[in-house]
Structure formats: structure tokens, C-alpha cells
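JOB MANIFEST
job_type = single_chain_structure
chain_count = 1
residues = 144
[input]
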Amino acid sequence: MSFGIYKQGQGYWTRMMTLLGIMTLFGWGAAWLAGQLQRIQPPRDASGAYTIEPAVIQGIGAFTLIIIGAALAYWVAYANPRTGEFFIATEGEMKKVNWSSKKEVVGSTWVVIGTSVLLAAALFLVDLAFSSFFRSVGVLDSGG
């Protein structure tokens, strides 16, 4: 197993964002673990003081999880040839994408919003018609 960076100059952004994502997940996990470790009651000495502070236990647990996450993130994003090839290929494909302009995105968004409003209004009218029909034939209660 190699600890060097596989194909160092390639796939920079996909590797960085993957590293950021993995470390974010492990950061949340470390915060959760620290909260769970608050429940542990360490032993006390004869005077009633803790032999080890609960905050130290929380810190060691969270720090250990962060270190494990950093090692895993480094291996996934930089040292593993299979994921390295995937990230390089992904970045190459993303450069080929024809990204829409801001004007096109805004126009498409307004079309979607308008269509959604019209569809909601049409469904509301159909619902009113059906509920009126079912009230008139006695299937629904009049609500009085």
C-alpha cells in the first residue's frame, strides 16, 4: 500500500470536495460521539474527585474518530488508485458538460414555478368539483 498521492496533479477539485465531505461526516460523528461519551461516569478516587475528567474522555474519543476519518479520507481521495481514477475521470467529464447560463436557469425556473401554480390551481378546481359532486349524492358529510 502506497502513502503517496496517486496521479498527483489530476482530479484536484473532485478529490478536495470528497475529502471535505468525508471530513464533514466524521466531524459530525465526532460531535455525536462526544455527546454520547458524556454519559460515561469515570471512576472516582477516595475524595470523590474523578480519576480522569469526563471532558478528557470526550476529547480523546472525538479526536480518535477525527484521526480515523482523516486517514480514511486521505486514503479514499488520494492514495487509492481505483478512486483516484474515478475522480480523474469525473473531473474530465465535468469539463465536457455544457452548463446553462444564468438567463437560461432563471427562465427555466419561472416556467417551472408557473407550471406548478397552474397545476395546483387545476387540481384545486377538480377537487372542489369532486367534493361538490360527492356531497350532492350524499357520500360526503356536508360538514355542518
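[summary]
The mean pLDDT is 88.
The helical segments are 12-37, 54-79, 81-96, 102-136.
exit_status = 0
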